[in-house]
Amino acid sequence: MDLRDLYQDIVLDHGRHPRNFRVLTDANHLAHGHNPLCGDKVTVFLRLDGDRIADVSFEGKGCAISTASASLMTEIVLGKTLAEASTLFGHFHDTVTKGDGAELPPDLAEDGERLQPLAGVKAYPARVKCATLAWHTLDAAVKGGGLSAPVKTE
Amino acid sequence: MNLLLKERASPAAPAFDPEELRQQFPIFARNPGLVFLDTAASAQKPAAVIDGLAEFYRGDYANVHRGVYRLSARSTQRYEAARETVARFLNAAASEIVFVRGATEGINLVAQSWGPAFLKPGDQVLVSELEHHSNIVPWQMLRQRLGIELVVVPIDASGGLDMVAFARLLGPRTRLVAITHVANVSGCVVPVADIVRLAHEAGARVLLDGCQAVPRLPVDVRALGCDFYVFSGHKCYGPTGIGALYAREGLLDAMPPWQGGGDMIRTVCFDETTYQDGPQRFEAGTPDISGAIGLALALDFMTGLGGDAIRDHEADLTRHAEAMLGDVPGVSLVGAGDERLGAVSFLVDGIHPHDLATIFDQYDVAVRAGHHCAQPLMDRLGLPATTRASFGVYSIRADVDALVAAVRAAQKLFGC
C-alpha cells in the first residue's frame, strides 16, 4: 500500500487548509463529535432552511484525515437537501468501510467523485473513524437540533 | 551465551548485547524488519516465557491448593514458587504478594478493600497529573462511594512532578498518596523515595504504580518503604492477565476480603464463613496459575540480565532517542522533569500523531499514538495526543534511527 493512496494531494491540502473552518454565528443546529481513541474533536455548525443546508461549517482539532474529511464534507453538502446529504453519507461510509459505495443518483455522482480521494482509508481500518467523524457529527446536528449531546465514534 | 551476570563494575555500557538478545524473542524472526517501539504498552515475550509456559502445561498442570494427588501438589508448588519469585524480585516476602490481573486490578483491590476500611468522608487521596487512568478512576469511584476528596499534585514546567506543590498539598487529611513510579506518557522517573518519606512523615500511606518502573529499573520495595506497590506482568516480558500487588506486612491481614469465593476461605457455613489470612484472602477462585508461572519465568529472565544492566540499556536508548529526535527540525519532546527513562513522547509540527503512526507503520515502525490513557495529563499539556516511542531489552539504537528516518519521511510527505 502506497502512503500516497491515503495521503493524496487533495487530502493533504484540505488537511492543512480546511475550508469552511469557522464558527457559524447564525447556525440553528450544531453537534460536537469526539473520537475518544485519538482525542479528535469536531464541532459541526448548520444553518438549515427548511430541509436544505443553507450554510455549514466546522471547527475542531484532528488528524489530516479527519480534518480533510470534514472540510470536503462541508463543501459537498452545502446547498443539498437533508435527504441528499444522508445519501452521500451512506455512500461515503460504504466507500471507506467496504471500498465501494452504492451507485449514486446522477445529480449526486459528481459529489461522490469528489469524496473518492478519501477512499484510501479503507486499507487502514484504524483510521476509518477519523474519516467518518465529521459525517456522524453532521448527522447528529441534523437530528439533535439546537444543542445536542456529544457524538462519539466509540 | 551466559546472561547470568551479577555485580557489574561499570555502569557505562549495557552488560548484555541487545542484538544477541533479540534472538531470544521469536517475534522478531517471524516479523523481519519490525521496529517495535511500543514496549510501554506491552512487551514482547522471550522464548523462555513462551516455551516455559508450554512446558508447564505439558508436564505439571493441575488446579492448585486442592488436589491430594501429586500432580496438583506439583502445580501448587510451582504457583507458590512463582509468588516467591515475585517477592524476591521486589525484595518483599511472599506473604506480602497478591496475584492480580494487573496493576489496574491491584489498584482497584486497594481502593475497594483498604479504602472503605480505613477512609472516612473528608479524607484525602493524593494523585498526580502524571497518572494513567488506572490510578485515577478507582479513586474517583471511591470518592463517589465514601465522600473522600481527590487531590491532584501538578507537574512543573519541565514535566516533572512539582515536589514543592506536593509538600504543600500533603496535609493532616491526606491518608493515601497514590502515584506512578515512572510516568507512562513521558517516561518521567518520579522521586518516589522522597515522596514516601514525606508522606509517611505526614502519616499517609503510599501506593506506587510500578507498571513502567518494574520493566526498566531495579525496584526494592523495602528500600522505598512504600505501603503498596503494583505492576503488570505483560509489560515486563510476561503473559497478559497477571500482575502483582505488594502490600507491606500486616496491611493485608487488616484489609477485608474483596471478592468472595473458593480458595479465599478457611471454613464456610451458611451462618458464618472465616477467611484465609494474607494473600490467599484476596485470591478468590481458581487463580491464573499459568499466568503466575509465566510471570515468574519473565522475572527470572530479567534477573538473568540484571536490573542495573536493564536500566543502563534503557537509559542509553533514551539518551540516544532524545539526541536524535532533538536534532530533527520541527520535533519537540514532551518534558519529563529531571530524568526520562524508557519512553519518549514527542510532537512533530504540522503532523497529527495519528497520521504519524500510520506513516510509521508503513515503515514497520510500531509506536503508540494517542492520549495513552492519560487524558488529564493531555489536557494539562494542552495536547489532544502525542506519539510515544518506548524501549525494551531487545531494542537497539538502529530502532531509534529507523524512527527518526520515518519522522523525516513523514515530514517530506506532508511538505513540512
Any key phrases for this structure?
heterodimer, A: 154 residues, alpha+beta, Sufe protein. Chain: A, four-stranded mixed β-sheet, B: alpha/beta, Aspartate Aminotransferase, domain 1, Aspartate Aminotransferase, domain 2, seven-stranded mixed β-sheet, 14 helices, 39% helix, disordered N terminus
What's the alpha carbon Rg of chain B, rounded to whole Å? 22 Å
The outline of chain B comes out as: globular
The value of Rg of chain A in angstroms is: 14 Å
Shape of chain A: globular
DSSP summary, beta strand count of chain A: 4
Helix content of chain A: 40-55%
Model regions low in confidence, pLDDT < 50 over at least 5 residues of chain A = none
From N to C, what is the helix and strand string of chain B? HHEHHEHEHEHEHEHEEEEHHEEHEEHEH
**What is the subunit arrangement here?**
heterodimer
Plain-language structure description:
The complex is a heterodimer of chains A (154) and B (416). Chain A has one domain (3-143): Sufe protein. Chain: A (Alpha-Beta Complex), CATH 3.90.1010. Helix content of chain A is 45%, strand content 19%. Chain A has helices at 3-6, 9-16, 64-77, 82-98, 106-115, 128-144; strands at 29-35, 40-49, 52-61, 151-152. A four-stranded mixed beta sheet of chain A has the order 3-2-1-4, covered by helices on one side. The mean pLDDT of chain A is 89. By secondary structure, chain B is α/β, with parallel strands linked by helices. Chain B folds into two domains: 18-46 and 306-414, Aspartate Aminotransferase, domain 1, CATH 3.90.1150; 51-303, Type I PLP-dependent aspartate aminotransferase-like (Major domain) (Aspartate Aminotransferase, domain 2), CATH 3.40.640. Chain B has 14 helices and 15 strands. Chain B has helices at residues 18-21, 26-30, 47-59, 70-90, 103-118, 137-146, 163-169, 192-201, 221-224, 289-305, 307-326, 353-362, 375-381, 397-414, and strands at residues 35-36, 97-100, 124-128, 149-153, 174-180, 205-209, 228-232, 243-247, 265-268, 273-275, 331-333, 343-348, 365-366, 368-370, 386-390. In chain B, strand 6, helix 9 (221-224) and strand 7 form a beta-alpha-beta unit. Chain A binds chain B through residues 1, 3-4, 6-7, 12, 16, 37-41, 61-65, 124, 126-127, 130, and chain B through 350-355, 358-359, 362, 369-371, 375, 378, 384-385, 413-415.
